[in-house]
């Protein structure tokens, strides 16, 4: 069974807190011992690097790396520049709009990589409807739509900023076999689809499996990126040779 990962924001905050204690604690100890006084900018950069390593160790995806590295420097710059309070409010609102699903639906923003796109294209039927539940910024949608021009590929997303980015991506692609919908995946009927793909989190997988069993037709498939369904072994597992060691878990209806 896959152990549920901590929420990304919690891991980020904890790793930054630990990195702050390590970097600044060592600097203070050196200073007390008569050593050199380290430049604050250098210490902030060291804090970011330590936080990045800790975040990866405790399950953050690779794309959090630049956030971890930049966060201490950005916070230090904001304090030194004496930025107005609305800047911090705007940054908070932006994070909320990006990670809208992380609290209520227990689904953080996970992005499928290119090797996963290729594996999904190999799995998908050459004709028939495909849906990506929680499609993020639309990379999977456009890849599948190009690979299977005779299929209709639907993406559903409820986080505002990822949805807008997915909409722009689809529009710029010029592909006409993509349907992008803003809304709740739990209110969407799965009956029309030959393949349902989801890269969510461990928490909603039992409900999704039950929904798929109730609504999907015989001969169709549910594909989960990495996350298992307790008590329901997949009919097939495909392991990908990527940095994440991605597994595609497949249940055939």
Can you tell me about this structure?
By secondary structure, the protein is an alpha/beta fold. Helix content is 48%, strand content 14%. The protein has nine helices and seven strands. The chain has helices at residues 8-32, 40-57, 65-81, 85-98, 101-104, 114-123, 139-147, 160-173, 205-215; strands spanning 129-133, 152-157, 178-182, 195-198, 221-225, 236-239, 247-252. A seven-stranded mixed β-sheet has the order 3-2-1-4-5-7-6, covered by helices on one side. Helix 1 packs across helix 2 (40-57) and helix 6 packs across helix 7. It is elongated and about 75 Å long. The model is unreliable at 1-5 and 102-107 (pLDDT under 50).
Q: Characteristics of this structure?
A:
single chain; 253 residues; alpha/beta; seven-stranded mixed beta sheet; 9 helices; elongated
Average pLDDT for all residues = 84
Structural Rg:
21 Å
Helix content: 40-55%
Question: Could you tell me the number of beta strands?
Answer: 7
Assess the beta-strand content as a share of residues: 5-15%
Secondary-structure content class = alpha/beta
Largest sheet: 7 strands, mixed
Strand order of the largest sheet: 3-2-1-4-5-7-6
Please give the alpha-carbon distance between the first and last residues: 21 Å
Q: H/E order of the elements?
A: HHHHHHEHEHEEHEEE
Instruction: Give the number of helices.
Output: 9
Coarse shape: elongated
Low-confidence stretches: 1-5, 102-107
Topology, element by element:
Elements: H1 8-32, H2 40-57, H3 65-81, H4 85-98, H5 101-104, H6 114-123, E1 129-133, H7 139-147, E2 152-157, H8 160-173, E3 178-182, E4 195-198, H9 205-215, E5 221-225, E6 236-239, E7 247-252
Parallel strand pairs: 1-2, 1-4, 2-3, 4-5
Antiparallel strand pairs: 5-7, 6-7
């Amino acid at each position: 069974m896959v152990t549920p990962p901590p929420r990304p924001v919690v891991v980020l905050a904890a790793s930054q807190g630990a990195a702050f204690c390590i970097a600044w604690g060592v600097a203070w100890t050196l200073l007390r011992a008569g050593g050199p006084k380290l430049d604050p900018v250098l210490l902030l950069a060291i804090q970011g690097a330590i936080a990045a390593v800790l975040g990866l160790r405790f399950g953050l995806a690779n794309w959090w790396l630049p956030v971890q590295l930049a966060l201490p420097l950005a916070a230090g710059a904001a304090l030194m520049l004496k930025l107005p309070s609305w800047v911090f409010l705007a940054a908070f609102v932006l994070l909320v709009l990006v990670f809208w699903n992380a609290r209520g639906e227990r689904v953080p923003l996970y992005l499928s990589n290119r090797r996963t796109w290729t594996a999904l294209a190999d799995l998908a039927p050459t004709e028939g409807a495909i849906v990506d539940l929680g499609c993020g910024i639309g990379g999977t949608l456009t890849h599948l739509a190009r690979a299977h021009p005779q299929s209709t590929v639907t993406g559903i997303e409820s986080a505002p900023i990822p949805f807008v980015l997915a909409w722009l991506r689809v529009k710029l692609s010029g592909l006409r076999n993509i349907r992008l919908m803003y809304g709740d995946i739990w209110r969407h009927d799965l009956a029309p689809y030959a393949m349902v793909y989801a890269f969510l989190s461990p928490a909603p997988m039992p409900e999704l499996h039950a929904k798929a069993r109730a609504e999907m037709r015989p001969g169709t498939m549910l594909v989960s990126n990495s996350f298992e369904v307790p008590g329901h072994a997949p009919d097939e597992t495909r392991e990908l040779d990527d940095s994440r060691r991605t597994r595609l878990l497949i249940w055939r209806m």
